[in-house]
């Protein structure tokens, strides 16, 4: 079974979650395929999307059922999802999530690990785990407060509610709404590739301020040195 497909074209690697019959829910194998697809990318931009009428429904419920109530196996499954989300977040590439249809639970958590999240007008978002006694454990409780703030993250997850694209935009879950989210990935890919990676690392840097500023200045120096001709051309 192939859960993830890859298409490399120009400066963009497109990774498609490819189980539309189950709204692209991810099994253990699917998570491992996704991790490898992100880790192996040489392109400066990765576009992550889902096939069919959903982005990703999160964890495959059959995979959760197969845990058979075993606490250690459940923790291992959560750690796998967390590791995949970290791989996305730490990728040298800029990762753009193109979200059409539902992004639920682990699917939303994987999107939160992406650098840019773009939804279609038909996209919807939710962490419904509390409605059946669970919660998203692929890094969602870490990243949601960073994105929404603690209060809104608590309300969103504790209510188990679903929001549409306009509400997600207002909340900050997504940054844009586009009929075709891929246009955002294509636009980003037209920029200087070395600058993309450096800017991503600087914005995601969580060191103390003096260290961040020192690294920022060093990165700026690197780019000025390597793009001197481009700067001169822009001034002409």
TrEMBL record:
Keyword entries, A-Z: Lyase
GO MF term list: enoyl-CoA hydratase activity
Keyword Transcription regulation: no
Keyword Plastid in annotation: no
Top-level taxon of origin: Archaea
Its EC number(s): 4.2.1.17
Uppermost EC category: lyase
Family of the protein in this entry: Belongs to the enoyl-CoA hydratase/isomerase family.
UniProt xrefs under PANTHER family: ENOYL-COA HYDRATASE, IP11341P-RELATED
UniProt name for this protein: Enoyl-CoA hydratase
């Amino acid at each position: 079974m192939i859960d993830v497909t890859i298409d490399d074209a120009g400066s963009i690697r497109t990774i498609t979650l490819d189980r539309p019959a189950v709204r692209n829910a991810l099994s253990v194998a699917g998570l491992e395929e996704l991790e490898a697809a992100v880790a192996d990318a040489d392109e400066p931009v990765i576009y992550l999307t889902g096939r069919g009428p959903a982005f990703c429904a999160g964890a495959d419920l059959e995979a959760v059922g197969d845990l058979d109530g075993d606490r250690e196996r459940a923790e291992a499954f959560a750690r796998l999802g967390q590791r995949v989300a970290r791989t996305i977040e730490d990728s040298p590439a800029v990762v753009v999530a193109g979200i059409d249809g539902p992004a639920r639970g682990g699917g939303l958590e994987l999107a939160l690990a992406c650098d840019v999240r773009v939804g279609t007008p038909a996209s919807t978002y939710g962490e419904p785990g509390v409605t059946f006694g669970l919660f998203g454990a692929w890094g969602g409780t870490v990243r949601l407060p960073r994105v929404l703030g603690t209060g809104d993250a608590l309300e969103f997850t504790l209510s188990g509610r679903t929001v549409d694209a306009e509400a997600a935009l207002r909340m900050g879950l997504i940054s844009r709404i586009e009929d075709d989210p891929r246009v955002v990935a294509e636009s980003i890919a037209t920029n200087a590739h070395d600058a993309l990676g450096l800017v991503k690392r600087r914005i995601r840097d969580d060191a103390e301020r003096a260290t961040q500023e020192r690294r920022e200045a060093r990165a700026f120096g690197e780019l000025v040195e390597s793009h001197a001709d481009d700067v001169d051309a822009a001034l002409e």
